Amino acid sequence: MSALSRRSPAGLAGVVILVLLAAVAALSYLGWLPYDPIAQHPPSRFLAPSGAHLFGTDQFGRDVFSRVAAGVGNSALIAVVAVAFATVVGTLGGLVAGFYRGFADGAVGGVTNVLFAFPPLLLALSLASVLDRDWFTIAVAIAVVYVPIFVRVTRGPVLSLREIEYVKAAVATGQSRWQIMLRHVLPNLTPIVIIQVALSLSWAVLTEASLSFLGLGTPPPAPSLGSMIFEARSLVFVAPWTLVAPGAVVVLLVVGLNLLGDGLRDTLDPRSRVRR
Amino acid sequence: MIVRNPVVRRIVRSVVVRRVAGTLGTLFGVAVLVFVMLRAIPGDQITAGLGTEAAALTPAQRQALELYYGLDQPLVAQFFSWLGNLFTGNLGYSARSQQSVLELTLHALPVTFELAVFSIVLALLIGVPLGMLAASRTSATGNAAGQVVSLAGLSIPAFLLATTLLSVFAASFGFNPNGQGFATLVEDPLLNLQQMFLPALVLGFGIAAPILRTTRTAVLEVRSDDFVRTARAKGVPERRLQVRHVLRNALVPIVTMTGLQFGYLLGGAVVVEQIFSVPGIGRQVLLGIQQKEYAVVQSTVLVIALAFVLVNLLTDVLYRVIDPRVRAS
């Protein structure tokens, strides 16, 4: 963290934004939101932002701030679960493909190529349309899209790591392949994987928001940033805050993740450090 | 592989043949995945087509329908009959629009293709100059502008930008060419270009960011090469140096990145075509999903994947043409 603040002020700004949004999301998980994000209250429709309703209210009289906070919580949960899944599966795939080579490499490579043949959003969309729609299956649909990316970024380094002396030494001392992979190869992949996690999180948030905008994400009435923006389309001129609040928050979330990702790359990736 | 005949050996080992074979293998995998994915949906074409009415079918009616749709066949047979039909141009039939999926696709594909080309042109117009500016050591504003645009491009979701632009242009300038029926480039070129402008701008802005970043990195890298110093020393004017020497050599990563962004374009097209009512291939998939017309979804997704794979193959060939070093290796 201190290295991050020294090398990349932008990365630090990203951390600040994310901490802020995490605090807002935490409100929803702790049940400390000012209003129920789902309960409708028709008398207070389309109230402009004020002290009582920080971001105003929507067409059903629901508090936009509470909905945005719950939406951030939802988006973050889905993105984190999706990327965690993709990281574990993809990194394992890259490890096995790069370390065993031969048949394993061919098999993993084949699956990766097939998944890469789909435009990312289209794959997530098709999967989401097939699966039951709840937050976990949405996360799985998004995860499948990002698995091949993790395979690709880890496989190359594994190929070169397995030729390094200390790995050969470990082979010579008779450690099992899995021991070598997990103890000597995997730790060296950490920086690459961390950078990829940060960048993938930002894409996962965008994908989730796009899916729910198209009506294939988190089903209503559960608040989701994407579906809030969809509903606000026709209300822009009556109640602009219904579009501005979720829009600004989704952009802020992705900006924070992108800044963090770039900052981590500048800090952790030796190649990008030279060229400055 | 051990092949004795030297001519055959050269053909088998040639990069192009291996790439094409690999691509065919990938496409087969794509077909399997698409097929399996849509079979995983609870219910079948009959329940999807008839909805709750399917429950009222007599066993005999149901059997007749199963026979009609080929659902009585084993899955593997269904798969190969679908695949075989694809090769004869039979992509299925859309009951809602009373048209074959091939017809639908032939109308939609050129629209999306035009949108993609338009977006790429806009993205290059935004990304490359800004990327070169961002790489310049003298201009701090240029650098900052590059950073801001690339961060914005990466962070603003296409659907948000599209929604905002559509409302703002319609309300403030009365500009809403997408409000009326869609005109193709042949029918009404002027209206068509107006209708394509905002969607292409949204998609182009999204892919301008990676192009900008790639341009910046590539230009920075090329500029520190010896031949640039030599060119400068022998008195090549700065403008000519930047374009002929630096940009030309930075072109390979830029072309590769642009090709890679094609996937984003095809995915983003689903969102943007929906918002701006552009009848392209992305909208066809989404409509298929919404109306539960799986024959449409299945074939259209396959067509899109095919287009994507072909573009990747083309990008590969293209940078072999641009860069003699890749050609030699």
Automatic annotation (TrEMBL), chain A:
Asked if Kinase is a keyword of the record, the answer is no
Q: Please, which domain of life does this record's source organism belong to?
A: Bacteria
As for membrane topology, the entry says:
Multi-pass membrane protein
**Alphabetical list of Gene3D superfamilies matching this protein:** MetI-like
In terms of SUPFAM superfamilies, this protein maps to: MetI-like (SSF161098)
Q: Where is this protein primarily located?
A: membrane
Which keywords belong to this entry? Answer: Cell membrane, Membrane, Transmembrane, Transmembrane helix, Transport
Q: Which residues form the ABC transmembrane type-1 domain?
A: 72-261
Q: Which residues cross the membrane?
A: 12-32, 76-100, 107-129, 135-153, 185-206, 238-261
Q: Where in the cell is it found?
A: Cell membrane
| Transcription recorded as keyword | no
InterPro entries membership: BP-dependent_transpt_permease (IPR050366), MetI-like (IPR000515), MetI-like_sf (IPR035906)
Q: Which family, according to UniProt?
A: Belongs to the binding-protein-dependent transport system permease family.
Checking PANTHER family in the record gives:
D,D-DIPEPTIDE TRANSPORT SYSTEM PERMEASE PROTEIN DDPC-RELATED, OLIGOPEPTIDE TRANSPORT SYSTEM PERMEASE PROTEIN APPC
Name-wise, this protein is: ABC transporter permease
**What species was this sequence derived from?**
Nonomuraea antimicrobica
From TrEMBL, chain B:
Ranges for domain ABC transmembrane type-1: 109-315
| Annotated protein name in UniProt | ABC transporter permease
**UniProt superkingdom:** Bacteria
One Pfam family per UniProt: BPD_transp_1
Q: Which UniProt keywords apply?
A: Cell membrane, Membrane, Transmembrane, Transmembrane helix, Transport
Q: How does it sit in the membrane?
A: Multi-pass membrane protein
Regions crossing the membrane: 20-41, 115-136, 148-173, 193-212, 250-276, 296-319
Q: Which InterPro entries does this one have?
A: BPD_transp_1_N (IPR045621), MetI-like (IPR000515), MetI-like_sf (IPR035906)
Give the UniProt subcellular location, in the record's own words. Cell membrane
What's the main place this protein lives? Answer: membrane
Give the protein family.
Belongs to the binding-protein-dependent transport system permease family.
